[in-house]
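Lest this sound abstract, we think one record worth quoting, the chain in one-letter code, the fold tokenised, each line plainly labelled:

>
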Amino acid sequence: MNDQLLTRNINSIGRSCFIKHFELLTNQELSTKQITEKLIELEGYSENGARTRVNCTKRILKLNCIERALDMVIDTKKISNDIKLKAEQIKIHYL
């Protein structure tokens, strides 16, 4: 996945959402529908919005771009330090 496509996918998910719900979004034991329903429940996203977030995450996983996606979040200037810290912790534990 090139950087432009990765950026588009991570932006579609939302950088904070990607980190806040990383374990849910990357849980391969749950179906897309189950993850979508949980995101709707937790965040109040529309069904289409939640499904887009899930599908973009699955694409990033499938193409083995998680580390690059986490780095993008960590390098983002307009994101809270809490999210950056959690992204760094995920990177340490995930990789």
Summary: Helices lie at 3-13, 15-20, 22-25, 32-43, 47-62, 66-75, 81-94. The longest helix spans residues 47-62. The CA atoms of residues 40 and 46 lie 6 Å apart. The chain has a mean pLDDT of 95.
